[in-house]
Write the structure tokens for this entry.
Amino acid sequence: MGTGELDREAHVPAGTAAGTPAGRPAREAGGTAGATGRPHDGAAARTPAGTRGGEAAHSVPGAHDGTDAPPATAGPTADRSGPTAPPRTLAEALRNRGDRGLAALLRARPDLLNPVPNDLTQLATRAGTRASVIRALERLDRFAQQTAQALAVAAEPTPYGTLLALLGGDDGDPAVEAALPRALGVLREQALVWGDDDRLRLVRTARELLAPSPQHPSPTGLGPTVAEATSGMSPGRLQEILATAGLPTTHDPVSAVVSLTSLFTERERMTALLDSAPTEALAVLDRLVWGPPYGTVAPPGGSPGAADSTPVRWLRDRGLLLPSSPRTVVLPREVALHLRGGRAHREPEPVAPEVRVAAEHRPQIVDNTAAGQAYTALATVEELLKNWQTGGPVVLRAGGLSVRDLKRTAAALDVSEQIASFWLELAYAAGLLASDGGEGTSRTGTATGEDERFAPTPAYDEWRDLPAASRWTALATAWLTATRTPGLVGGQDAKGRTLAALGPDLDRGAAPEVRHRVLALLAELPSGAAPDRDSVLARLRWERPVRTPAPAPGAPEPSDLRSRIATWTLTEAELLGLTGRGALSTAARTLLAAPAALPAPALLPTGLPPTGLPPTALPAAALPATADRAGGQPDARTVPGTPDARHEQAGDGPAQPAPHGHAALAARAALAAGVIAPLLPEPLDHVLLQADLTAVAPGPLERPLAEALGVLADVESKGGATVYRFTPASVRRALDAGQAAADLHAFLAKHSRTPVPQPLSYLIDDVARKHGHLRIGAASAYVRCDDDALLDEIMADRRSRGLRMRRLAPTVLAAQADPATLLEGLRAMGYAPAAESAEGDVLIIRADVHRTPRRTPPVPVPDGPPAPDDTLLAAAVRAIRAGDLAATAARKPAPHTGAGELPRTTPAETLATVQAAALTGSAIWIGYVNVEGAASQRVIAPVRVEGGFVTAYDHTADEVRTYPLHRITGVAELADERA
């Protein structure tokens, strides 16, 4: 690069010293003293029991009784529920919340629930861990992320007005001003921001993640502050910068930094300084102002020690550029903000992009198109599984379907390989298709004992017996909830291996969420409106920003996974019949309707749900862990009828299904089936026979007719009408299945709306006349025929040499091939032989139907912890409240007890104190050691003492428990008695 030239770069070269963010927030999780979990100063930092109410901001009376509202939107704090002191830590801010506020936090961040925190101090600590904060930040919308990024570059604590100026700029932005309260409310609800509006604080971990650094540039494009950039600069150099900038020199570096920072943050003086800058210097600043803020400098003439009289030197002399390494300079944050007009982001995005309408259709056309495609989906899945029911492809050793078998399946279905993968994965997700594990059975129950193959499951037979509408809802609900992602088929995994259809590596936890969100966006459009694809993707990227840049307009496919899943969703929804001509159908809107708009679950019929398949178990969060496994709580005997007795050790058991989720899903499926049923074509009981040996089915056929016609004829073309062609081979196939010529004539006459053509009658009679004229049995194999001339003809045919036949008698030929090979060989030569049994009877050869052992549908792989239901949230909030109440209770010092130690008393003193507390109904403080040796401190209210056990209400667990007296290390009275 040229002399004095400055190049932007995203990162400072290795070895560059990085400044630390200015300021550190106060301790957020709250200090602890020993095992009590109390604030570090020993004061009871809680409101009295029963009066704890209100959020950290915009609280309402009665919050603790469960009637409080979620955290209100930000803005100037008003209407406080009492003269409460500002919170000093995140734990105190959470302690000021109501039950609904805590429930909203746990619902938004379900990872905080596993296991349930013992108290609010532990909840605050867990909410500040790196993994949990990263997960929460990644799930924010774009403007909420921009708000958090602005807080990370602001001085802490940050007033609300300062934050608004960083996002809206000096001139203000009405859209930002209107959207900021909502974004800040989201951050507060998720415990990423705490404090009053005049003292907003970003949790320490989030600030460390979002603050600018050379190794991790901020999305704002801002660099370090003046204080951070000059942290290693010599005092003499600082004084030179002050003098060159026209500022009075100071006696120490700290005051020098303050003076320089004051210059850069005062608009008038800063404007005057920049007015005196050379034009080339301003051009350099323009290149760095929006980031990256770092650049390299080449000295004049290429010699490192040469003098620099370039515009970069002018900027360095006045501190407008500060050195971060011998060859690198950085634009201070205060200078960049002045040049930006106070704006932290180049393009704030306070409003979500609108989903545009690409085309509009009449709703009736959309519903009819979707219903037609839904019936095509049913026919395609049935045809696929019908082709595989006599023995599907072999399962690869690594799992999945081979490329060759996928191509064959796509050719049989007359679709592309990508579409064939979708139908395969859909059948697999619905539980209709699976691997037999090498243990498949025929319909007679006989084990096959062959290689592991894909085959239909027994649930496929149950599914086929359902009405068409119920079969469709089964497929649609399976697709909505499945984490299998067929769009990945043909791609490569992280190790460069090709991903196979039905393989083990196609689960993506985000798939159900993205599918639901895409369809929800379509549901927001007017009926019959088809969305613009790019606008849907833009909306999804705003709601869940990704690190990769957005694709260029008109690009064939986006690069990030969520956008790719959204693109596949639009295609798959059309294939499945959820959309018609790109617009959401009425049946799909019903399937996605909110539970409040559906009938009560009790009004639905019991038994098999409308989908026709067992309801998929919705994952539910595990119940709180038992006392011994969480926080060293006791192994006390539970009292019958208490919550602990009903849910003992539930935390280690399997996840329980969510019945309300099943009922809502069944209700939506039932209503959707009722909506689409009248639109699906009625199966026909007739065909139209034509003189060219074809039959035309003008619509879908009834299953018995379709199955019988599929044996008697070959499908020539599909579409609105299916064309079947009769051939000698197809007629012989029907005769091999046990049908007689008279049966075939009667069948065609019954189901044809046109007279049976004479060529077709001749074809059936001609094939039947020859059928069975030759008989093949096991000798190892022989050919028997009453017409010795026909046998002479076979022996003279050169094509029979491979069968190695010889004549045993005038009417018998022997072959060294097995009967099946001999049968196929003679048929290939144009004859119509029939197999016979050892008794000489003609054998009816039918392909045996193959089924897997009963399989359950694949369990979706969740994208993180499952969302907790209201019951679990209520129980968790009660447990946290009770544990916090016990942990923050003020206690009298116990004899022979140091700070943070368990109380120690003799067995006699322990018994006397517990009995006295039971008589007076007072609460006491005990030390307890469980069977595993874990020690804990409890606050209990004894109810009964007998038989070496004390039954008491445990304030920590918020329930009645029974404790062995010999495991209590000691007791002490509380400083404030509670009734």
